[in-house]
Design brief:
This protein has a domain of 176 residues: HUPs (Rossmann fold), CATH 3.40.50.620. Helix content is 30%, strand content 16%. The protein is built from 10 helices and 12 strands. The strands form 5 sheets. The protein has a 3-stranded parallel beta sheet, with helices on one face. Strands 4-5-8 form a 3-stranded antiparallel beta sheet. Strands 6-7 form a two-stranded antiparallel sheet. Helix 1 links the parallel strand 1 and strand 2. The relative contact order is 0.17. Bound molecules: glutamic acid and zinc ion. The site of zinc ion has 5 residues, from loops. Glutamic acid binds next to loops.
Amino acid sequence: MVGTGLEYGIEMVSTDAAVGRLAPSPTGAQHVGNARTYLIAWLSARSRNGRIVLRIEDIDSPRVKLGAAEQVMEDLRWLGLDWDEGPFFQTQRLAVYQAALKKLKAVELVYPCTCTRADIERAASAPHLDHEGPPYPGTCARRCVADAEVLERRGQRFAWRFRSASGPFCFDDEFLGQVSVPAQWCGDFVVWKSAGTPAYQLAVVVDDAAMGITQVVRGDDLVPSTPRQLQLYRALGLTPPRFCHVPLVVGPDGRRLAKRHGDTRLSTLREAGVSAQELIGYLAYSCGWLEKPKPISAVELISHFDLRTIPREPLVFTGRW
Ligand code: GLU
Ligand code: ZN
């Protein structure tokens, strides 16, 4: 089924069935690390007879690469990870995110922020802990929604920032158990960028709710985002999914798999003659579902799936198995 996702309203239709999702950002080629997370997400839903939604997270426009969405879908098909709904493209769902922003404005849970990234870096006392940058020092927090009109009249650019509770936050994770996110990782966060587009935090919440996602499986680099998203669910009156953060794949130096570790793109492995079954077998072995790596398809793994056997440590990928 191909659709724009516009048919999904913001009020979710509740069903009892498990619904998982694959939510790639088309910002470049997918590598072995992405494949492992997608495999876990896919098997988790399929092992419960669940459905899979494919959502292309293409609103991060400066980083989105032309043709990358098609490449992601080709990689998923090659891996044998299919989907029942989508692809839905976030860039075609802007009206839905606008409606959510309007709700947040109506209850004064957002305010216009004119700070630049450099302003925030300068004012921040804590080090840069995740990809969102340092916690926001609250410079614009005294503003109210109506102040946006004045800024607009002056032609001043601003983002919309959510008034966060102060933390620390706790949530229950299906893989990690009870997770505590320290207060210094929190702070008011952007839900609408000054460029006029929704921020990841808002789009992901609106979409997961609208698409009826019951379980979010993703890399544990997104743990700090979860308390932000849980606050948005509450503010928008939406039901959150269950979260399941799984370890990332790292290079031999312990850092997240990236270009510096050589070419681990799925397309490169494929061109080098590696079969999807070989890669899936290696990943399944790394998750504790096989005693040794052997070629196997994703479908054949459905009956082997078990979240509890996945090691807690990141998988170190050396490029060979
Ligand atoms: N699009 C994000 C990524 O590829 C995933 C976001 C999420 O799973 O919540 O990193
Ligand atoms: Zn500000």
